[in-house]
Write a structure and sequence with these properties.
The protein is α+β, with helices and mostly antiparallel strands. About 30% of the residues lie in helices and about 45% in strands. A seven-stranded antiparallel sheet has the order 1-7-6-5-4-3-2, with helices on one face.
């Protein structure tokens, strides 16, 4: 399955890339992420709650390709799924056009539930991008101006 969403963020691509590339920031814009800890070079252990009323699950996260400030590829894997996520950042007159492309496979989800869960993934990605935009644009207004 594949989900693609994009949003305009009124920040420079370097600012956006630096924020999303540091997974310690994930709880600020990914509501299902509960905790993050580094687990090696370009690797993190992420505890997330992908399904309500279920305990948090461990998500192994690895950067597979980094091209600051225009591209970041990430592989995310837990007991239920494997996600390959791409962040594409394009400089625009009003900041950064940020695109997230997620391709994913379910490991053990019965076929009748896959479409329902894919709809949830699409909703979650759209919500994350809105939260990312709110967080980064609010942070910019709180930064002291130079002068």
């Amino acid at each position: 399955m594949r989900v693609e969403q994009r949003i305009m963020i009124a920040r420079a691509p370097e600012d956006v890339w630096d924020f999303v590339a540091d997974h310690a920031n994930d709880p600020a814009w990914c509501r299902k992420v509960k905790a993050v800890e580094p687990s090696g070079s370009r690797r993190w252990r992420v505890w997330h709650k992908p399904v309500p009323l279920r305990p948090a699950a461990l998500l192994e996260t690895t950067h597979t390709r980094e091209e600051r400030p225009t591209y970041l590829a990430i592989r995310e894997q837990d007991d239920a799924s494997v996600f390959d996520v791409e962040y594409r950042l394009e400089r625009a007159a009003r900041g950064t056009l940020f695109t997230q492309v997620s391709t994913f496979e379910w490991k053990a989800l019965p076929r009748p539930f896959r479409t329902i869960f894919a709809i949830g993934v699409r909703r979650d990605v759209a919500g994350q991008l809105r939260a990312l935009k709110r967080h980064l644009e609010a942070a910019q207004t709180q930064e002291p101006s130079e002068g």
